Amino acid sequence: MTDKIAVIGFGNIASAIVTPLLDKKLIQPENVFCVVNTEKSLEKIKNNYKHNINVYKSGSKESKIIWDCQYKLLSIKPQQLNYISEAYHIKNKDNLIVSILAGVSINRLAQKFPNHKCVRVVTNIPITIGKGLTGISWGKEITEDQKQFTKKLFENTSKIYEFTEDYLDIFLALTSSGPAIIALIIEALSDGGLSGGLPKIISEELVMEMILGTICLIKEKKLTTSELKNLVTSPGGTTISALRVLEKKSVRSALIESIVSASNRSKEFR
Ligand SMILES: NC(=O)C1=CN([C@@H]2O[C@H](COP(=O)(O)OP(=O)(O)OC[C@H]3O[C@@H](n4cnc5c(N)ncnc54)[C@H](O)[C@@H]3O)[C@@H](O)[C@H]2O)C=CC1
Ligand SMILES: O=C(O)[C@@H]1CCC=N1
């Protein structure tokens, strides 16, 4: 891709999206123009980031250059959106904003950026290592070129799903918040191992290998989750004893509600 790309907000997820593209030379550092809102972030990117991208502080005169880039990745927090305004001189409708903001609707983006076409994307942090999941919802009048460009940003590092917008909140709850839920489960199970006397490092490794092995088995043998559960759970055995505790503590319900809650929170950012 030889187009200039503006990145508005270069935090955790923007870096996770852009860095693999730079690593694989799919985009060139001189074509990336990013803007951040603190001096600290600016210095960190200038001094420590491994690629020599262009970076500016928001509000500075030089940062206005981002509005001349045809493609923009909007990657600030939803709560920070009010502080961004489209530059007055943009009149060219060829401009595209790819927003990865949780919850913020295409409608709101279109109102905020009247001289841009807008795409709403949900992606997740495993995109850093090429194992991401990306949901895309197209705004009005997106051209084929703009679709191709958006897909190119994500297709090398994630599986892409095209959805109508109403699926994006639940997609985000499962796939974007999901990694934190899984990390919490790994941490908690490891603490269980710790309680049984295992060193933390071994306990954590065992949990992660067990989870990986379980997922591979389910996928390779095309098992249902119930079939897998039955393979492990003997009458009067250890596993049913463990599962009984989880049911008593309503862990299943807590997990369901955690996803519903994340999805509802996303909807609040409309
Ligand atoms: N972290 C994740 O796994 C995911 C995050 N998202 C969404 O991505 C967005 C960014 O999230 P993170 O990267 O985690 O946040 P972050 O806090 O790491 O990054 C936000 C960045 O925006 C910059 N910023 C804030 N105000 C600005 C302004 N006025 N002008 C320019 N830059 C400004 C900050 O300096 C920071 O670099 C959020 O909207 C979030 O909902 C979506 C899916 C997954
Ligand atoms: O917690 C958040 O708001 C962001 C959106 C999805 C993952 N992280």
From TrEMBL:
Its main location: cytoplasm. Its EC number is 1.5.1.2. One of its GO terms (cellular component) is cytoplasm. It comes from the Bacteria. The keyword Oxidoreductase applies. Belongs to the pyrroline-5-carboxylate reductase family. This is Pyrroline-5-carboxylate reductase. It comes from Prochlorococcus marinus (strain MIT 9301).
